[in-house]
Specification:
Length: 240
């Protein structure tokens, strides 16, 4: 977390929460390259099996997960599937990354990776050998997971209510209007102008906000981009 290593081993009791800012090169919904500064809230949960049921509550609302095994104790590698199952059963199929830690204590070239290969195929997850002591692949792990989380967040989600439509419009037009920092004030202004109730929006309110945002997008990005997003969200709104 902090580019430092401590030989003292402190068992995580329940969970420990840390913050880390990761800078990644990624793409937005339009396929344009962007530099994103992402703040991660990392919940480090206890890994001992006797506490397995205790930590399930800490999984809720996670956007992704680092599943860490001790490379010097192969039984922890064998337990990864159980943890992945519990995690996905709690939060759904969010991105994960498999980490075999303590690479400085093992022969990586001779390590039996069959379980890891199987898990990678089954869950679509990469695996890395890491070392908290030397720093090997630690930053790479955070960056890789963050990119996967961003990519997953940009996927088209099933929209079943008008609150989700509002969220989708906000995310979409923030991206169109130059990112969240630049776009959010413009999106918020048009939502307020349309009288949108954020907790219980109506179809009419969102339609008005959408048309307002399309006019803004037209002036900034041109008619093609504006019309594409108008058609996209009118199709969604017409289902309600």
């Amino acid at each position: 977390m902090f580019d430092a290593f401590d030989d003292r081993y402190i068992t995580t009791m329940g969970t420990k929460v840390s913050k880390k800012v990761v800078t990644v090169e990624t793409t937005n919904q339009n396929g344009n390259g962007v530099t994103a500064n992402v703040t991660l809230a990392i919940w480090d949960v206890i890994g001992q099996q006797q506490y397995h049921s205790l930590v399930l509550k800490y999984f809720k609302n996670s956007d992704g997960g680092l599943v860490v095994a001790d490379g010097s104790r192969f039984e922890t590698v064998e337990e990864m599937r159980k943890w992945i199952g519990s995690f996905h059963n709690t939060v759904g199929k969010v991105p994960i990354l498999l980490l075999i830690n303590k690479s400085d204590l093992i022969d990586v070239d001779a390590f039996n990776t069959k379980i890891l290969d199987d898990l990678s195929v089954e869950f679509g997850a990469k695996f890395f050998f890491t070392s908290a002591k030397t720093g090997e692949n630690v930053e790479n792990a955070f960056v890789t997971l963050t990119k996967s989380i961003i990519k997953d967040s940009l996927k088209e989600k099933d929209i079943s209510n008008l609150v989700q439509v509002a969220d989708a419009i906000i995310v979409d037009f923030c991206s169109v209007l130059g990112g969240f920092e630049t776009g959010m004030p413009m999106v918020e202004q048009q939502f307020k102008k349309a009288g949108v109730n954020f907790t219980n929006p109506t179809k009419e309110q969102l339609t008005t906000a959408l048309k307002n945002l399309v006019k803004v997008a037209h002036d900034i990005q041109g008619p093609d981009v504006a019309n594409t997003h108008l058609k996209k969200f009118m199709t969604i709104l017409n289902k309600f």
